[in-house]
Amino acid sequence: MILVVSVCKNRLAEHEFVRPVTDILKDEGQEYRVTHYSRLSRGDLADADKIIICGTQLRDNEYLEHVNKFSWVRGNTTPLLGICAGMQVISLAFGGKLVPEKPEIGMTDVTVTRDTPLVSAGKLKAYALHNLSVTVPESFLKIAESGKCVHGIMHKELPIYGFLFHPEVRNKEVIKRFSRV
Amino acid sequence: MRLGILFSGGKDSCLAMHKAMQTDEVACLITLESENPESYMFHTPNIHLTRLQAEALGLPLVTVRTKGEKEDELADLKRAISRAMEEQGIEGVVSGAINSVYQASRIQRICNELGVWCFNPLWQMKPHRVLRELLASGFEVIISGVFAYPFDRVWLGKKIDPETVKQLIKLEESYGINPAGEGGEFETLVLDGPMFRKRLVVKDYEIEYKNNVGRYVVKEAVLE
User: Fold this and answer.
1) What is the percentage of chain A residues whose pLDDT exceeds 70?
2) A135 near A101, Cβ under 8 Å?
3) Would B84 disulfide with which of A35, A144, B4, B189, CB 3.0-4.6 Å?
4) Which residues contact A159 (CB under 8 A, 6 or more apart)?
5) Across all residues in chain A, what is the average pLDDT?
6) Which residue(s) pair with A4 in the sheet?
């Protein structure tokens, strides 16, 4: 079972940031369960074979006021994928810092700098929607960047990945591959 | 949250509104009346009917006229949203964008500049699912414009029912038509729906059609 974590403050936004992810999982024949980060229990985490933390609206920074709710990320060894806000909380949990940016909105040229199980090295066109990037924590490698900021990170030893762009919009293969890792 | 719906009178803005109403308060409709029939962003045939639809829905309508030229449209959209913020006290905007990153990213940018929340509840939905949800929710929708081969005159005014959905999905297989018409292949007009207090009844219309481009122009409609 794949645990899909919503970080959306507004329920209406889950149609836009969570449902596109679960639609891909459904197409892949994967079982999943959606839980809001504020209601996540130890049992939810223990039952999960994989975890995806989704993104949220440009103006939604509520999850950043509750970073303690993501302290489980640090001790986690289950395959984990963070998208946008999800990548931000992964970085924060492992000691990274937020980097305020001028917003990147829309299709963006991203360079993947190394081959990973989710995406191969090369250039891709990705859908971006964010005004915060992150620093790469010490236990992580940078795997993707735009001209402006870090767009992908990967843990050096654990199957933990973060992308700032939204793979559920124009690079669905990333999520498909993660679901099969 | 008080929301304004970017409203063209077509199926996508109505389905987006329907979803928004499940969780939030819809305060008004926002319509750009484009003078350009080939508007990049905004659906145009029968746009004058949005006044009647707003009345049927019992919602205030904020309208702004636009010449409908590519980048000017965005300034006009910004003006319309900012007027809805002042007049109706909206804190968020809802669009019916499904898969167009062109449309969605422009709306996101404007909302970001204005400091207003942006919602796209149909985002990345599969076109056939959009159609099926419309039917399951009880919307009455007709095709009000066709703009691509192989659509012919017969499609104009056609009601979207399970049979039409099947035909649209077939056109996707054989001609690459997007069954939700998001590539501008066809446009729709919503006559009735679950949140409508009254339904629109077309009393008189005209068909304009030539070489796979046609419009079902409503000349007279009433609320019943």
Assistant:
1) 100
2) no
3) B4
4) A79, A80, A117, A181
5) 97
6) A34, A52
| Complex confidence, ipTM | 0.96
A66 given a catalytic annotation: no
Tell me if the bond preceding B150 is cis, omega within 30° of 0: yes
How are strands ordered across the β-sheet holding A2-6?
A: A32-36, A2-6, A50-53, A80-83, A160-163, A150-155, A140-145, A98-112, A122-134
In this structure, what token pair is assigned to residue A19?
């449902």
β pairing state of A98-112 and A140-145: antiparallel
Which domains are seen in chain A, by residue range? 2-180 (3.40.50.880)
pLDDT digits (tens, 9 = 90+) for B106-137: 999 999 999 999 999 999 999 999 999 999 99
Candidates B43, B102, B37, B96; CA nearest to B71 is B102
8 A C-beta contact, residue B34 and residue B47: yes
Query: How does residue B67 score in pLDDT terms, banded at 50, 70 and 90?
Result: confident
Chains A & B: contacts with CB separation below 8 Å: 71
For A35-67, write each residue's pLDDT tens digit. 999 999 999 999 999 999 999 999 999 999 999
Domains of chain B: 2-119 (3.40.50.620), 127-223 (3.90.1490.10)
**Angle at which helices B127-136 and B162-175 pack, to 10 degrees?**
170
List, in sequence order, the alpha helices (H) in chain A: 14-17, 19-27, 42-47, 72-75, 85-93, 167-170, 172-180
Is B124 close to A168, i.e. CB distance below 8 A?
A: yes
Helix pair A19-27, A172-180: axis angle to 10 deg:
60
- Per-state percent for chain A, helix, strand, coil, to nearest 5: 35, 35, 35
Hey, of A6, A10, A12, which one would you mutate to test binding to chain B, going by the most B CBs within 10 A of its CB? A12
Q: Is the dihedral of CA A169, B13, B104, B184 positive or negative?
A: positive
User: Which residues from chain A sit within 8 angstroms of residue B115, using beta carbons?
Assistant: 59
Is A103's pLDDT higher than 70? yes
Q: DSSP code of A165?
A: S
